[in-house]
Amino acid sequence: MEVVIPVIIVLAVVAFVLGRAHDRSLARKIGAEVGGKRSHDDPVVLLEKLHQLREAGALTEAEFETQKARILEK
After folding, report:
1. CB 33, CB 47: distance < 8 Å
2. Which of 3, 23, 30, 63 lies at a C-alpha separation of 20 to 30 Å from 72?
3. Contact 74/35 with Cβ under 8 angstroms?
4. What digits encode the pLDDT tens for the residues 13-48?
5. Interaxial angle between packed helices 61-73 and 4-35, expressed in degrees from 0 to 180 and rounded to the nearest 10
6. For residues 31 and 59, is the Cβ–Cβ distance under 8 A?
7. What is the DSSP letter of 37?
């Protein structure tokens, strides 16, 4: 039992770190899509992706608002 608890803690930390890495990766991917000036991008789709990132905690409210303004300028 003494070994089980530290192993569970290590696994929880690893899962958390990997989850955050995935969120950052997704944020970079969507940020590249939003930052690009491709005319064929659908603003509604991009706004939905931004919303998902904000809800997942990958974007702050300020980052969300900045990217939303960039999308709506197009």
Report:
1. no
2. 23
3. no
4. 767 666 666 677 777 777 776 665 554 578 888 899
5. 20
6. no
7. -
